Sequence to fold (616 residues):
Amino acid sequence: MMGPMGRGGGRYGGRNNSANPRMQEEFKKPRRGVLLRLGKYIWQFKWLMLLALILTIGSNSFALVGPTLSGKAIDCIGTEAGKVDFAGVGRYALLMLLFYFGSSVMSYLLSILMVYISRNVTLRMRRDMFNRLCDMPVGYFDTHPVGDVISRLFYDTDTINTSLSTDIVSILASSITIVGSLGMMFSISRVLVLVFVVTVPLSILLTRFVTSHTAPLFRKRSRKMGELNGFVEEKISGMKTLKAYHQEGNVLSDLDDINEQVVQAYYKSEYYGSLMGPSVSFINNLSLSLISVLGGILYMTGGFNIGPIAVAGMTIGGISSFIMYSRKFAGPINEIANIYGELQSALAAADRVFTLLDEPLEGADAENAVELHDAEGNVAMQDVCFGYTPEKTVLKNLSLTAKSGSLIAIVGPTGAGKTTLINLLMRFYDIHSGKITVDGHDIRTLTRRSLRGAYSMVLQDTWLFSGTIYENIAYANPNATRDEVIAAAKAARIHRYIMSLPEGYDTVITDDGANISKGQKQLMTIARAMLVNANMLILDEATSNVDTRTEAHIQQAMRRLMQDKTCFVVAHRLSTIQNADLILVVRDGNVVESGTHKELMQKGGFYREMYDAQFC
Fold:
């Protein structure tokens, strides 16, 4: 097939994606507003998020009461031996149990709620991505690795899902705990809070430093994972060819190379991201040590004066409560530092998702575009020029005329532009200059949906989905009756084979028809095309996987069923198109000869050379 796939040296571009300027730009320059756009998805569940916020505040507020109650219970012990207020200790212990139990219940409900929200956010995100893919031009799929697209649909959205369900909860809970703990510490001793004036800025500076170095690494990790998926998908789909040419060793070598790149990307991102936790933990332990020393001084001295400022002493219970709050204050900071790598990975994944969602859609129909109804099938191309890239023209001033009900065969050497011509008829690509008309209408003035609906198409690359044979044949016309499906199968000479199967038309096809031969798959796709109520038919090497005898029968059946309809047939085997009303010989992007088989043979030109090469 001509186009970007034919020019790239590989169906998916292999490991050369890093050479793509657009992908390099995506890696080097992170897109802005990713967090805001992710927030818009979450905002769709604003009331549930409000409930989540209430549960977070409630859960952490209940948990923050615990250290205060613990300190009061300790103070009930008293300073003199044998004087213990057991009733007070029991009362505070029971209150602690109730508050911690309430905190746990709300935390459990919060986890369930966030799992529900994150699941629905990723569901909508995947749906939006797939809807976007359905509206993208065919050229996008010719130039982007399928494995990378699948990676964005599943791996990246799963990464976002994990972050939404766990990391956001942790950040909300940590933020509330930090603010609440700081307030409680102020109420116990303002002097000891001064310790955090030194340690908190250190933590902030450290976080900013690590952020600047790790964010690009996580974006690179996501990109490399997409490249690996593309490579694996490509090789698995071509496993038979791979084994036939004994390329297992070379593929494994290539896999080792790209896998090593993925491992290195993971290692570097995780290595530098993991520095955050221990570093912040060290700062937190430093603050805890300073608090213990200063608290001990305040307890032993009973307080002191610094000029006009009086510093109150502290009780054992007060010191205990302050230390517990300091740990609650420092713990969330440490937790945020530990999940920072996951957040960076999620943002990198979201960036890749939104990059896909921002891909340009297929051009909109003309403002005054009209619907094509009951097309007669008169097709003409006038001085058409087209190239997949500006520097290389594939078709040059090509002209042809196909009258309604005629069978037009398109032949020529590989790379001549035969399939490109079909792409232009279906308007998968727009021409650079010239004009293509259907029944006198410039196809650019028609809606794409109605234009493509006027054709039925059978391609060389067959596509069947997991489902019954009946569902696969009726795919193009869901309203077809069983009798119509059977009639189409008979015309395509596949009915007898289907009836030989134990389940007949209810036989389930799996793995893109891996349980049936290529020829049988081709016959099913031909039967599918016969069910389409279209006035024009395109066969792009559609009979390449069937034997010559079966192909002749199919041609006869096609002529009967497609009577008075325009048919375009791209063929390599010239024996199959000898009865065509018009044969177009395409060479180097131009129609060099045209006529019937007999006329072209008499001319003794390029068509005759091709025919003699096949049969002589």
Q: What stands out?
A: The longest helix spans residues 86-134. The longest strand covers residues 379-386. Residues 1-30 have pLDDT under 50 and may be disordered. The CA atoms of residues 296 and 319 lie 8 Å apart.
